[in-house]
Structure formats: C-alpha cells, structure tokens
C-alpha cells in the first residue's frame, strides 16, 4: 500500500465536510483500508513537517483534554506533543485522584465538563466500553486511548504505520503476537486491524491462560485470515515477518498467583533471534518488563523505539482529521 501517492498536501485547509471531522475514534473497526491509507498519508506529511519545521500552526487555538484514569507514558505524552507541535494546547488530567473524579463524579459528567473547555478529548480508562460511554455523553470528538482490556485503536494505527514504514507493505505478512494475548488490548486492536489486509497470517504464542479471546479470533476468522495458536515461539519464529511482543498485564489479574506463574514465560534475546529472518522486525507497544532483553536493543530488527516515534506522527494526523484540518 503506497503512502506517497495518496498523501494530501500541506498546508491543510479547513474541511468540515471531511469524513472524519467531529468523529470519535473508539475502535479499529471504524477504519477501512482506504481510511488507513489516508491516515498514513497524513502521518507521513506530519513526519516531514516535524523534521523540517518542528512545530507549525495547523491546530492553533484548539485545545485537547488528555484524561487518563490509568497510567501512561507514551500515549499521554505523544498526544500532548502532537497537539503542541500542531500549535494547539492541552489540559492534562493524568492524576484523576486530584480531579473531581475522587469526589465521585461520573465519567459522563467529567466528559461533559471537559468538553466545555476543550475541542477534543483523549480518554484512557480501566473499563471496556468506557470510551463509547464517554462518546455518547460528548458532542466533541472522543479518542479512545485504551479502554480496559477492550481496544487501543491509536496504538494499532501506529503499529500498522510502523510496519508500513519499516517493511514497506501490509499485505503478504506473517505476524506473530507473543505474550499476554488475553488482557493485552493492543493485540486485540492490532489483530482486528491487520485482518483488513490480504494474505496475512496471524500466529498467537501465549501461555494457556493468556490466549487470544475467542471473540477476537472469530472476528478475524470471519475475514478469512488464517490464525494458529502455539505455546512456544520456536517453530514459527523463522517464518515471522513481524514479531509483536507484549507485557504480561499484571494489573488485570484477579489472582496474583496466576501472574507469578506466567510472568517470565517468554524472553526475547539475541540468541533466540538467531533463528529469525534478517529482514523481519520486533515490535512492542511498551512498557517492557523483561520480555525483551536490553541486549537485543542494538539489533537493527529492534523496531520498538522507532515505533514510539511513529506514534507521534499518527496522533498528529488523527487530531488533524477529527478537528477538520486534514
Ligand atoms: N501501553 C500499552 C497499553 O496501555 C501496553 C501495556 O501497557 O502493556 O495497553
Ligand atoms: N503503548 C502505550 O500505550 O504506552 P503507555 O501505556 O505508556 O501510554
């Protein structure tokens, strides 16, 4: 899928009739292949602009409310950086305990409050479906920055953008997802989004208690994407084009003893990676807590730090889209 040919040309004009103007971004299911191509084109332009001028005034005067009920480093700071690089400003609420949430204010009321002051709201919340609840309460666009074990759509968009930039295609790929596939919302979104492409094969490697949810596998299966489950990486590493490693999500376990049983299940290191292709990549949404050895960081196939940077450009594109400037 070429990103160059469909790139829109900066500077963007106001386009209130554009498909994404005023829309919420709640799930990857909202994105067709054409939408993705468009987002990637805009993200590509954003990258060029950041490299050339750093900051520019596309969203001057616009305000983003960044509302995080769960911890975040990348998503929160990249949305802040995205808004500020586009000339806008940010209301940061990362410690909800210092907001009126701690007095018992409901999510819909919190959202109604913030939309009085902001043009767009980014929300991370521990409950699946919370972003949809927030979007129902809001007239302004709500962007889902992770709703419990549900979805993390902007992560999947930056993940697919990363694959496109690093490997140059999103069709004809074998993608292996490794780790906590049960509670990892990034893989739920990524598997769904990859099913939009052609000749994709998905391998899922996890401990038995952390398998990919049936619901996600059924949705992906309905698009005729071959999926296979494994307990170990060994057999499928040599055929893998993208190895997507995830953290075991300690905070989601009901029984801490279960976490202890699986926490060190897989560790990627230079020795294991000898069996992988030379032109594949290793991705991770991060943070990592031991599942990729730091000894692997200098390998050119280690794409996880570059992946974070791509997130800035994708989030700049998404903000421009929902605010009618792309
Ligand atoms: N940062 C990602 C998320 O919030 C992945 C993780 O925390 O493991 O879903
Ligand atoms: N990848 C990701 O969502 O990172 P944070 O949890 O640090 O935002």
Taking all Cα atoms into account, the compactness measure Rg is 19 Å
CATH fold category name of the largest domain: Rossmann fold
Architecture (CATH level 2) name of the largest domain: 3-Layer(aba) Sandwich
CATH superfamily of the largest domain: Aspartate/ornithine carbamoyltransferase
Q: Tell how many strands the DSSP assignment holds.
A: 9
Helix content: 25-40%
What is the name of the CATH class of the largest domain? Alpha Beta
Helix run count:
9
Strands ordered across the widest β-sheet: 7-6-5-8-9
pLDDT < 50 runs, ≥5 residues: 1-12
Tell me about the biggest sheet?
A: 5 strands, parallel
What's the number of structural domains? 2
Shape: globular
The average pLDDT is 94
Q: Gap between N and C termini, in Å?
A: 20 Å
Say which molecules are bound, naming each kind only once: aspartic acid, phosphoric acid mono(formamide)ester
Order of helices and strands: HEHEHEHEHEHEHEEHEH
In short:
With about 325 residues, this protein is of the alpha/beta class.
Task: Give a written overview of the molecule.
With 326 residues, the protein is of the alpha/beta class. The chain contains 9 helices and 9 strands. The chain starts with 32 loop residues before the first helix and ends with a helix. Bound molecules: aspartic acid and phosphoric acid mono(formamide)ester. The site of phosphoric acid mono(formamide)ester has 9 residues, from helix 2.
